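Let's practice the habit of predicting before peeking. Look at the sequence and jot down your guess about where helices and strands might fall. Then scroll down.
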Amino acid sequence: MQLLVARQAQAPEVLLPKATRLVRDCREWLADFLRHKHPRATITILRKTDRRQLRYAMNDAGLASSFLESSAWEVRVDVVAAVQQRRQTTLVFVELKAKPISLVDVGQLLGYCRVCRPRGAYLLSSKGLSSNLHRLLTTYGRIDVLDFGNDVMRVGRWDVARASPDWSSMIPPGDLATIAL
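Done guessing? Here is the structure:
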């Protein structure tokens, strides 16, 4: 198993803005998570996808040939991983929010997922879900709004202290165990 993570020289922790630390921590968590889920796969965490269009990151990572339509992807996703195994490459998205996750945030990531067709997607916030989104998903059972065709995005709380998702908050419950290669 090979792990490819394009890392930048890191400034001392105190100099990094909170959002930068959050994205960095999420990249590290996603790489570890996918490495444990797919020990024989090559995991690549794409660089700077939170600051530039995914089409450029795909090209720079040498993945454009695996996703021919990626030249048209005008989206910015906070963290993107490519899982390569047995001549097949799939993507996993993680979008991070500084405020409670709302239906607008779900719509944003849902749109990205419809365009790019990842095998999995997480929408996470250290503040959890807004009360309205929580009510829609739990009280009214509208999990269908998280469906993007290939899978169902997971929404939940990012645990800042543990630098990983709070699995007990995840809707629908569970991780992306359904990522099949």
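How did you do? Helices lie at 18-37, 54-60, 103-116, 131-139.
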